[in-house]
Structure to design on (690 residues):
């Protein structure tokens, strides 16, 4: 974490007046956000950013982050907000380039905390090779927000001739998972519940350009998805439904850390439904599965990747997802109706 | 306003579970947002949207809307969220094309209100000829939001060879204002304060593509700005500072409705500092002022436009803005320190 000195002429906490569009707003923007996000495009004093041409097709994605607590083992809302949108752009097969960042800040938020968050955003943006080019700052009264909510919206360049499509899954395709499940959700939940583990569970929050670019170089991907809210179960159900296929995954093949499994058991949660922020599901044709897995495993964030299952022909009862248990029997993996873990991202 | 029937299988109010990323989230998104925003790009079930190429340069702008009350005379947070971002893109000289829309919804928000807001967004998007191509929905607990906050982020195409620049103002340039000041802010404030006026003050919330495109066809614009938070005073001060010039405006030349003036007097507000959501400041070279004014006045939203002042050489005490009063003396127009009107947009 970078050091976050509070500039001399800023108060220790955000006041409503910082959201009024006057001198205090300028001060907050210049001394905190411009300081951390500085780049040539952001520096122009327009209401918006002017960006260069971006190839034949552009990917665009948006997410507002409302995670609580704002700081958790492995990250904070700032890097989460960058990594989340970067990964959504990557899931379009695109190279992320530019991000906007819009803050809704609760009156009384500590400027020092805001600096820590902005510093984490800057570091995550640098790591992901994206620039924060335009922004917005609003302040609302105490009790009308929860510290800070951050929207990031990103755009990126889609390579020519690439068409990732959630409805393109075919029986025989392999399901690759690039890392262990449940780390982000359980980092948040153990923190919220005050659960003491022998080892601290850390969020997996990370941008996954390394994995995605490695995959795009060597295989013909059907689709990429990051299993965030709703976990692996939601992602696989959405893909099965979009393609009208069945998916069977093997319980023993799914990477899952022992401490995460224990924490899930203690809190009565199914790790298949827990949110992740640093892994991807990649679906590839069967004959490219080994090549794809090797490419992922060689990537910085993919060392624990595994082939976890297979796409199958639909059965007469409609598209669904099955989990094969260690002794050969299987159970259906449903999408949750509502939330298991509110405000996880 | 379109009619907003609540789909049969939706509850009357938003529950926390609608933000969990499961079936209820899908239901809310499909039955409310997809219903109103439907277009070919949004319909693909990606985490992001894939957009076609967009010319040599792209403009990008973001804004989160936290206005209270959510519904006010002349509009609601929905059309405001579209028009505000569309106008910011227009201020870059660009043609707005695609918008993202991200919602943070407070548990307990009426689905019917959400439908009204989504319908207003769809109508405003249609009017502005933009498409809402990707989105996000989060739900937070009661008391962690105020109904709904909406982020919109937009991208648009910048015409070749156009360079609007807030630092390009030159002594002699004319300042054109495209309509009366204070309408949005005072529509909100009279509503909040329960002030009964003989005529209801309506927000000027509107997208201003008609005016901007008319201007770009006939004159060489120095810069365009929409005077929202902080009002005309903030916008002119920012321009004077960016260009290192003085600006003098004539009080008698500034369009201001009588009821807005009265409401400002009653609440002790200076209309120069009150937010607007449907007017623009255009700065043009002196010899093109008449042509520019005529073009604006012929536009649907520009009938009340006026030349309100002139750019002047800087004086030794630094860049500043002056208001010439009816009897010839003048007073300095300062940028507000903080907010006069919190949560106005």
């Amino acid at each position: 974490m970078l050091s976050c000195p509070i500039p001399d002429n800023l108060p220790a906490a955000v006041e409503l007046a910082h959201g009024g569009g006057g001198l205090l707003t300028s001060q907050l923007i210049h001394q905190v956000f411009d300081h951390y996000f500085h780049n040539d495009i952001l520096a122009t004093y327009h209401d918006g950013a002017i960006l260069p041409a971006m190839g034949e097709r552009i990917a665009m994605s948006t997410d507002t982050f409302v995670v609580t607590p704002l700081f958790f083992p492995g990250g904070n809302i700032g890097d989460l907000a960058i990594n989340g949108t970067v990964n959504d752009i990557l899931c379009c097969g695109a190279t992320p380039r530019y991000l906007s960042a819009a803050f809704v800040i609760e009156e009384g938020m500590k400027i020092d905390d805001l600096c820590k968050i902005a510093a984490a955003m800057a570091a995550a943006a640098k790591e992901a090779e994206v620039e924060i080019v335009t922004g917005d700052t609003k302040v609302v009264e105490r009790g009308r927000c929860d510290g800070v909510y951050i929207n990031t919206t990103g755009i990126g360049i889609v390579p020519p001739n690439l068409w990732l499509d959630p409805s393109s899954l075919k029986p025989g395709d392999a399901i690759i998972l690039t890392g262990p499940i449940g780390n982000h959700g359980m980092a948040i939940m153990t923190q919220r519940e005050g659960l003491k583990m022998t080892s601290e569970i850390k969020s997996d929050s990370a941008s996954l350009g390394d994995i995605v670019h490695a995959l795009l170089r060597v295989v013909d991907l059907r689709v990429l998805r990051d299993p965030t809210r709703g976990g692996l179960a939601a992602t696989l159900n959405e893909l099965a439904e979009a393609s009208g296929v069945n998916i069977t995954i093997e319980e023993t093949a799914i990477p899952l850390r022992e401490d995460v499994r224990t924490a899930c058991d203690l809190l009565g949660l199914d790790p298949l439904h827990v949110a992740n922020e640093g892994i991807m599901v990649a679906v590839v044709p069967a004959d490219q599965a080994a090549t794809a897995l090797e490419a992922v495993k060689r990537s910085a964030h993919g060392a624990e990747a595994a082939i976890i299952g297979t796409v199958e022909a639909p059965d007469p009862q409609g598209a669904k997802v099955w989990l094969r248990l260690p002794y050969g029997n299987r159970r259906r993996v449903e999408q949750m109706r509502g939330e298991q873990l509110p405000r996880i991202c």
Q: What stands out?
A: The CA atoms of residues 67 and 344 of chain A lie 5 Å apart.
